[in-house]
Amino acid sequence: MSIETVIRSVENLPKSIDNIQKNGIVSENSDWTNMIFEKILLNGLRDYTIQDVAIINKRLACTKGQNFLSQVWRLSLRYTCVPKNNSFKRIKKIVHLIMKEEPLPGFSLDFIRENGIFNVELMVFTNILPSLERLTGRQFAPRFFSGSTQPPTIILEDLKPLGFKNKCRQSGLSQAHMLKVIEAIAQFHAGSAALNEQQPGRFLRFTSRSSSEETHASMYDWLDFIIDQIADKIRKWSEPWAIRASDKLKKLRRVTQHQKLLKVSEYDNDEFCVLNHGDCWIGNFILKVDYDDYFIKKYVEILSKSMKRYGCSTPPPTLQDITRAMHKRRIYGLMSGLIFYPRMIADVSDIEAIDDCFKSGTTKMNIFKNPRAVKALKKMIPAMLEKGYLD
């Protein structure tokens, strides 16, 4: 179950979104004006003395290759308001926001519209996160200011001015940061398990698969192209495992991948089921603080303690359960390790638009140009061979 999981219907959109539109907080087009943002600040800050709102800065928040499901903007707004301790005085303030809009026309736009991604994310921000945060006593996301389905928009607090920031995707996370991420994920999962016990069926709308029969064929072309590229390249390496790994990778053609992805993404009620983040990568974590089995054990430990604290009667999964579930979905590990990780750590100048990749089913990016990618592959592929990930 996923925050940005595919759904085909919008009939269950939260009333709060409809109310936002009826109250005129969002216009019927994307011509964002000072007046619209004044209503957004009134709604988000709950301060009804706000006026004289003006956009003083708007700039793209993401560089090419960082986000293909939306356009993300950073906004700075100036406004005046009345302080609580002096009703005769007006003070000027600045607020910083993040605004997510639909991507530009192309494959990405078609994909998010076909799969209702904005609608699902809005449902989570308005209907799910408030309940989860009350239950767990912690914050999982920036403050939600406003949202709309027409135009598809989500407006959040920008935490960067408060000292939070994304870590460098090329460098990865330190152990301390990784522990923070594991803690957040485990508590998010534990909270969703407790919430589902209190309100059975609440998450059924999020059971759709991330891969389906409707998944664009070009995506599989793209995946095959990259796997073939890696298989051909590593075949020339001197390591003793190189040829065996190359042969196995060559067998991972579209039909095999397609069937595996469909199979492992099926909802299985016999497993430990929780609400998943849906887009859990380094670009979606902001941190303010400066081991394989180690991290999984830590996750299970925090998950178990959190479920007990939240009053869950559902037994938490054991380390063996998690290991078994990960092995069942090892095709995801292969995709993220061999395809997406080298792209993630690539120099921005080497990354082409995802639309171009999916349109042609190929990529111009040479992942072997990056020494760090080669080093990572030489660590990952033997481990994948040993664990049977390539079988």
UniProtKB/TrEMBL annotation:
Domain CHK kinase-like, first and last residues per copy: 154-309
InterPro entries xrefs: CHK_kinase-like, EcKL, Kinase-like_dom_sf
SMART domains hit by this protein: CHK
A Pfam family annotated for this UniProt entry: EcKL
Protein name: CHK kinase-like domain-containing protein
Native source organism of the sequence: Cotesia congregata (Parasitoid wasp)
